Amino acid sequence: PASDPELVERARKAKEALGDRLFVLGHHYQRDEVIQFADVTGDSFKLAQQAAARPGAEFIVFCGVHFMAESADILTTDAQKVVLPDLAAGCSMADMATFDQVEECWEALEDAGLADQVIPVTYMNSSADIKAFCGRNGGAVCTSSNARRALDWAFEQGRKVLFLPDQHLGRNTAVLEMGMSLDDCVVWNPHRPDGGLSREQLERARMILWRGHCSVHGRFTAESVDDVRERIPGVNVLVHPECRHEVVLKADHVGSTEHIIKTLEAAPAGSSWAIGTELNLVKRLAQTFPDKNISFLDRTVCYCSTMNRIDLPHLVWALESLVLGDVVNQITVDADTTHWAKVALDRMLALP
Ligand code: 13P
Ligand code: SF4
């Protein structure tokens, strides 16, 4: 549905009143009604870079999910305030790796005499304390647009990688981009004290994948790809690397949200595309490129419910509160966590 014109006007006025004091970031998975007010849109890598590049903005309003706002707080100055318009906008994948669980895993690797060979790498989609854990233990952060480069870096530092929390991104990058075999990867189950793995399996593995996944991308299946190929002859299937390995294997192209957009920009008019990523972005792409036939990979998969928590009423409330001098829903990360998470984030930002 079209945005409520009264709310649109209120958001516009509040943005005008705040001027250069305000910088609004919008992830590609945000609703249209919100994305229209973003000063910059992007994938999580681009948004982290952009947050770090605006030291002059007093308020960063982050239209995305909690771990992204935390990263923005870590990468901005102490004087800058980061606001998440709805605190319920979390991420189910990030919640699948808690600090205590990761510490337990690390202790088990220490007990097995393996920890000094292992470099922990966490996907951006994780809480600040997991990023800090990686920073403290010689590791780094990665996003879906630089996972390969981050893993190349990690294997220069050690012999094995503990990849958190998305098993699919880890497996897809290791097997499809780096030529490892599926046997090089094992999955650590955080609900078992030994991870559900024998010592021999841990010794043999090159990639120890955390048992986490995205509840949206994890719903695309190999059948989704077969069905769309049957429905749309000649279709190009383009999916995000958070999809399961068997889905990515069947697809024609794989890449981050930013990569998906660039691929469609360059695609010839009249070509057909089925996209396996979040629905807000796919709908927007279909509107942006009417000369291409763009459809959603599987019509039974729905929006990311937490991304969708950020709606126009919440954005208006956050902006109008700032105009009145009230910083609502500020996201702050404590100094020690910030220090070590920044070490891990800076290692990512320094990748060639
Ligand atoms: P990217 O923005 O890195 O492509 O990640 C997708 C995602 O699931 C963000 O929550
Ligand atoms: Fe988390 Fe998946 Fe939603 Fe991204 S799309 S915020 S990874 S649940």
Described by the principal axes of the CA atoms, the overall outline is globular
Ligands, deduplicated: 1,3-dihydroxyacetonephosphate, iron/sulfur cluster
Q: Give Rg in angstroms.
A: 20 Å
| CATH fold topology of the largest domain | Rossmann fold
Number of domains: 3
Strand order, biggest sheet? 6-5-7-9-8
Overall CATH class of the largest domain: Alpha Beta
CATH architecture of the largest domain: 3-Layer(aba) Sandwich
First-last Cα distance: 43 Å
- Estimated structural class: alpha/beta
How do the SSEs run, as a string of H and E? HEHEHEHEHEHEHEHEHEHEHEHEHEHH
Which stretches are poorly predicted, pLDDT < 50 over at least 5 residues?
none
- Biggest sheet record: 5 strands, parallel
Q: Please provide the count of β strands.
A: 13
Strand content bin: 15-25%
Question: How would you sum up this structure, described in words?
Answer:
With 352 residues, the chain is α/β, with parallel strands linked by helices. It folds into 3 domains: 5-92 and 307-333, Rossmann fold, CATH 3.40.50; 94-214, Rossmann fold (3-Layer(aba) Sandwich), CATH 3.40.50; 217-296, NadA-like (Rossmann fold). It is 43% helix and 15% strand. The chain has helices spanning 5-18, 32-35, 44-52, 66-75, 99-111, 128-136, 147-157, 167-177, 199-204, 222-231, 245-250, 257-266, 279-288, 312-323, 335-349, and strands spanning 22-27, 40-42, 59-63, 81-83, 118-123, 140-142, 160-164, 185-188, 207-210, 236-239, 253-254, 272-276, 293-296. Helix 11 (245-250) links the parallel strand 10 and strand 11. The longest helix has 15 residues, at 335-349. The mean pLDDT is 96. Iron/sulfur cluster (SF4) is lined by residues 29, 65, 91-93, 125, 214-216, 278, 304, 306-307. Pathway: Cofactor biosynthesis; NAD(+) biosynthesis; quinolinate from iminoaspartate: step 1/1. Iminosuccinate binds at residues 27, 44, 123-125, 144, 240-242, 257. Its main location: cytoplasm. Pfam families: NadA.
